[in-house]
Design brief:
Length: 280
Amino acid sequence: MAPWQSSFIKTHTLTDSYLSDAEPIVQWVKAEYIKMMGLPFCLGLNGAQGSGKSTLAAYLAAALGNDGLSVAVVSIDDFYLSPEERQMLATNQHPLLKTRGVPGTHSILQAIDVVDSFKAQRQFILPRFDKSQDKPFKSQYWQKVETPPDILILEGWCIGLKPEPNARLQSPVNSLEAKYDNSGAYRHYVNTCLAQDYQQLFSLLDKLIYLNVQAFDRVYQWRLQQERQLKVNLGDGMTDNEVAEFIQYFERLTVWGFASLPKQSDLTVRVNEAHRFIFE
């Protein structure tokens, strides 16, 4: 184990098995980068909440960086709209859009501009979002990338998703939709957003990795663990009931990902209950 790997394992509170689990993904990304013949390589990484996508993105950046490649990482979460912007959506479109999460609650044109700039090898700025305050960090805390990297990793729970077929939109998927979106206006709006500018963003991806957690029940358990750790670290966080309601915003498209993403991703990695990677 190299010193940088030991440091990574300690920092992210991982077991040594993570290194062997992640190594095939590192090698796959290196091979795909080589195929790009030196062109800017934008890698999409999709995984449900708690799947380990942010940790994997960080590990890929560290491993590839150790091999001499420059890597920048940004999350789709960093492009969330401000509370004020989401309140306008809630007023003008649907009250559920006040809560960050679904397509329609991101500054997606900003994300497109970032990836376009990367592809053109221009300098760009990566925004950062403060989830503890539910608002973007002030711009002085954003990351200015003056020398474009070899690889840009765009990670997030809805990365690469195509819009749902209309037949899937007919019925609520959970109690949140049944109570607050009985007419279907919210889910149709979200799907329309996903079908438009989000597809333009996803078309800029050169390859897509999908971390398939296989069951939505795991999302609740893992998000619960994350939130409890936040309380330990920051002294504040959602209650168990608030977590249960919050993840319902993500359920529809996460479940749609179970059905659709294995067919369209370039690499699908199953994630088991112990967070171990299993390759298909």
